[in-house]
Design a protein that fits this description.
- With 315 residues, this protein is an alpha/beta fold.
- It has one domain (6-56, 71-201, 221-313): Alpha-Beta Barrel (TIM Barrel).
- It is 33% helix and 19% strand.
- The chain has 10 helices and 16 strands.
- The strands form 4 sheets. The protein has an 8-stranded parallel beta sheet. It has a 4-stranded antiparallel beta sheet with strand order 5-6-14-11, with no helix packed on it.
- Helix 7 (259-268) links the parallel strand 15 and strand 16 (272-275).
- The chain is globular and about 50 Å long.
- The two termini are 28 Å apart.
- Bound molecules: (4S)-2,6-dioxohexahydropyrimidine-4-carboxylic acid (DOR).
Amino acid sequence: DVDLSADLAGVRLRSGVMTASGCAAAGRELAAFTDVAALGAVVTKSVMLAPRSGRPTPRMAETPAGMLNSIGLQGGGVDALVEHDLPWLAAAGATAVVSVAGGDPDEFGEVARRVVTSPAAAGVAALEVNISCPNVANRGLVFACDPGSSAAVLRAVRAAVGDDVVLLAKLSPDVTDLVGIARACVEAGASGLTAINTLLGVDIDVRTMRPRLAVTTGGLSGPAVRPVAVRCVWQLRAAMLAGLLPEVPVVGTGGVAGPEDAFQLVLAGASAVQVGTALFADPSTPARVDAGLRSLLAERGLASLGEAVGHAHRP
Ligand code: DOR
């Protein structure tokens, strides 16, 4: 039997297949369709300090290549998450990875502090630090597009949570120096990296001749971004092998709809993978990816997920 467990900077997940942030809120709507306790983790929708209504609608658009969203970090705020959602996940037997966000480094730090000091913190395996939401701009800047801003956020979160909490920095594909930004994150306290957030796009309705989204731009996810995600994971792993980036786990996400998509990310260097957009079509996709990945590994004589991580880089 193939060992599909994943090691994230010292935290062991029962499976290397988890959900992606933003696509299943805090997991409740998945539970009707799939066993949330069998997932590597449920990654919760990014949460900020206060409740937020997000951006004006329409803020989702489907295209043949994938989905565009401009949600703008809608949510009930961190106190509601720790009071209602995290206890629910723990009672369901699920492992949580909590995605945290903020308008500035201090807000990120405070959100993270409230999560890790809450009574529900025992069920939280890691925090994912969302520095790459394309739909909120602080002075026009997505943190993850600048090494200094990325580092400032990671430093603030690390200072707020102490040394023992696993922090994954979620990276944007919309950058030229992915490795430089990743290095800034790790040097500032990230224990690992998640690649990628959505890719900024625009879709225009040719009937009305207007953009489909109220705010014009949105983050592209789904099948179109899968090769972009594989490229980003590949670049991070290659930089680690070349000694240009400290060796930290990479979580691959982007366009995973089946086991082969997940396997590509693993071969490129991902220690675990996330399923996002595909959940909308089929909430049991992670279970199917988990089973299929086991078969793919077994067929190739690999006994564990760990043995496959970065395999495509071998000479
Ligand atoms: O595509 C995204 N949409 N990425 C994020 O990080 C946040 C989300 C939103 O709420 O807009």
